[in-house]
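Working notes for the structural subgroup meeting. M.R. asked for a predicted model of this chain before we commit to crystallization trials. I am recording the input and output together here so anyone reviewing the notebook later can reproduce the run.

Input as submitted:
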Amino acid sequence: MIRIPQIRTQWLSTGFVVLCALTYCLIVFGAMVRAKDAGLSCPDWPLCFGEVIPQFDVKVAFEWGHRLLASCVSVGLIALSVFAWAKPELRSLMKRRLSVAWILLLVQIVFGGLTVLLKLAPWTVSAHLILGNSFCLTLLWIACDLHACTELKTGVREMPVRLPLSLGVRALAFATVALLLFQFVLGGLVSGHYAGLACTTFPTCNGDQIIPEFAGRIGLHVLHRLNGFLLLLSFLVLAFAVRKIERLSIFAKTGLRIVFLQIFIGAGNVLLKLPFELTALHTAFAAALALVTALLIREVVYTPSETSQSATMRMVEAR
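Returned structure, recorded in token form:
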């Protein structure tokens, strides 16, 4: 049981939700920068043409605006960290969580600079995408933990009762996370190698074959498609497996719906030749899927397994 003043955790939890939403907007804005081919509109870093505020055209405005929004996220994390660290009763709770958030943010800043300085090298684009989403879901996880620690009227919050999960369900959940991570890697590489139109038809690729080859830009595009279908299958099986577990079922079904939408949006991107709006929407739903999956895996992590519960019961009986 955790005793922490309610009002402080409420404010801090709300602050992390707002910062998570701001980071989500930053991720989508980054996709818009990419779609406008504005990633190198500011050819230097951290300044833009050697100036803090450069002369603007449309592309420079997109890139500079992306950097400005990233700076706002950094300032927001500083403010929340100071607030949490100034309260001794929050410090122990937040120490590890803030450390993870700051490590992700600092590494993300470095990769943001490398992405520009290395002229949008595909591996930096992919890493930048993964780190940004990891930071966003970490903020959401922290907000959920703070909300869970908020005192009830009695001044004490009891831990919720969670039915134990089988090892099979836990393994399936983590396998789904692995597929999602791989999909983000592939998505970053497809973007970095400009392979979004390597296949110009759907569901086949440039003709009557679904898998014409696994080499080069076409191979990247095909792998991205195939892994997307594997991710859909994984969420489908997971949603069925946890259908009787209320909270897990909600997250699994939501994730399944988002993957369905992602496949349709991805097909639209191919058939309509990567329109700006659909490209941004594709990234928006990908980031949303990452957040939903984070909530799902948080439930899995905080739910005991059948094995651990059996071991606990044997210990109690032995006493």
